[in-house]
């Protein structure tokens, strides 16, 4: 049996997600046995990544109940600026945070956590382009490949995907 068998994870999608930042963690978590559900504003809609890779939403945000999931992945790219505008996305992230479930965020995904107002005093990383945003939200920002602060796992950019994927899986396995 793989160590994440029986675990369920939400992966958020919207237009112009960073292709690798969505698919690498999704495949990494699935390789360890977890079930991953892609969720977008509209169930059945195919969203296109920045470089043309598609992702079909298996669920709409409104269909999701955070109590049925063990963690959430937020991809980078330009999608986070859209994702943070959906009240249900913010609600899911806040609930995951309240329940101390693993929240994975990479690159610009920090914008979603900022909008959920869960970063005050949390040590994180992100693309350097949103460092000021992260710090203004109360986060302690570090320029490191991966930063784990409790249940919040953050990474900077695609080259950091291998240690990010491992750190998220480790957090999920420990939960």
TrEMBL record:
It comes from the Bacteria. GO terms for molecular function: transferase activity. Residues 7-168 form the DJ-1/PfpI domain. The keyword Transferase applies. InterPro entries: C56_PfpI-like, Class_I_gatase-like, DJ-1/PfpI. PROSITE patterns: PEPTIDASE_C56_PFPI. Coiled coil: none annotated. Belongs to the peptidase C56 family. NCBIfam families: PfpI. This is Glutamine amidotransferase. It comes from Paenibacillus xylanivorans.
